[in-house]
Give the backbone structure.
Amino acid sequence: MSDWTDADWRAGADAWIAEQLERSGRESAGDFDQMHDRPWSTVIRVPTVDGNVFFKAVSPPLLHEAALTEFLGLRRPDCIPPPLAVDPVRGWMLSEDGGQTLRELIEIERDLSRWSDVLPLYAGVQIDLMGDVPALLALGVPDFRLASLPARFEAVLDQIVGQPDEERRRLRASVPWVREACDELAAAGLPETIQHDDLHDAQVFVRDDRYLLLDWGDACVSHPFFTLAVTLDGVISWGVDDMEASEPTEPYRDAYLEPFRGRTTSDLVGLAQTARRLGWVCRALNSRRSQPSDESTLLRLRMFLDGHP
């Protein structure tokens, strides 16, 4: 992983930021603040006379994020603002302030209903990008399409060490279900597309009365409904007080599915239920790229097992 505190790296990043500010005609208004430092990414707040902008750098497994964000911003600038500047080789980008996070608003309003607007907006992005899979893959977006998922799942099970015997048995026994679930989703005929894979309330922003969908570093090409694993099971079901199963998820599921109506003759709710569980397999495999520990992989696979004893 990258060392974001290395003096030479930071000097290079600061110089690139200054160069992009000059190119865009923006004047710096203070010291750059490295406000976020994780093994997989770092964020630097850059004050300017016109307001804050933000620099983001990511680790090598996530290098596609800068180019992908630029691509999405050109396709859907209404909800994914194009970056001010991008270096796709280094995976750097400079972006406008996204505003207030949905998480912050939910804490103030004590209400999750905004998700009912966010989810169909996001579904619309997925539908709009269904024809862009070759372009997305060319940008380096990871490929977790249904055809390869069962074999990749089995391969990861071979790599994990030190887990309890009963858990290992249950995961091995689930391999046929994973194959059948992939076949079920493929047979429904919904095209695979961009899938955020970590759509939670700190990735959604509100600015000027618009919802903005940001932080696409974990995005992949996969079945669109895999999104529901994290968003419903990992976020919404926990409610405003972070209590498991405290919020019914059906209304939010239905809001997300509405834009897909008429795109398949299969039962959307049934497909969503299958994808919602299989999505944790995708999440486990995908996140292993940037967080390659068995512990973090098993955390997601246990969410999968919770739905399939």
